[in-house]
Design a protein that fits this description.
Helices cover 64% and strands 8% of the residues. The chain has 6 helices and 4 strands. A hairpin with a 2-residue loop joins strand 1 and strand 2.
Length: 172
């Protein structure tokens, strides 16, 4: 058996002296995949809020958990390559100069905004708030996160004449 590049050459190694490697997924590709993953989940919240799997499992658990795994992988892959931090705005800017950390920040937004949108749908269904009033909140939550949440809380408070989340009520 002959050696090729320090490896035995024989039946298994004749075709590929150096087996082909898949390139690691770059941040731009992963960005596109995460964005494609999130859109069907948001669409389910808008058009199929009553389907038993929409707000209870898919948008509240499965998709945010998948995004959470991506987030953890991105952050842990950068241990030792991170500069910056959360102590000042300049530190955060330095942290996000790293494309993988910038993507981790984006994935964080995707996961948490979807989780909030899912809560809005579940909460509105539990309280009997018409879904057509929730749809603009979902659009804003998708696009501008906290603005959609605030709109939902305002609509919820106006209809219920109370500001309450999970039983802690303050009457308006």
């Amino acid at each position: 058996m002959a050696l090729l590049h320090g490896r035995p050459r024989g039946i298994l190694f004749d075709t590929y002296p150096n087996p082909p490697r898949r390139p690691p997924m770059n941040p731009a590709t992963l960005f596109g995949l995460c964005n494609q993953l999130i859109l069907p989940a948001w669409l389910l919240l808008v058009v199929a809020p009553g389907w038993k799997w929409t707000a209870r499992l898919i948008t509240a658990v499965v998709v945010p958990a998948l995004l959470g795994i991506v987030y953890i992988a991105l952050v842990t892959s950068q241990i030792g390559n991170i500069s910056g931090g959360f102590g000042s705005l300049a530190d955060v800017a330095r942290l996000f100069e790293n494309p993988s950390m910038l993507l981790a920040g984006w994935v964080h937004y995707l996961a948490f905004d979807l989780f909030v949108g899912s809560w809005e749908v579940r909460d509105a269904r539990r309280l009997g708030i018409p879904h057509w009033l929730v749809i603009p909140c979902l659009a804003l939550t998708f696009l501008l996160g906290p603005a959609g949440f605030v709109l939902y809380i305002v609509i919820r408070a106006a209809l219920r004449r109370a500001i309450a989340i999970d039983g802690c009520a303050t009457r308006a």
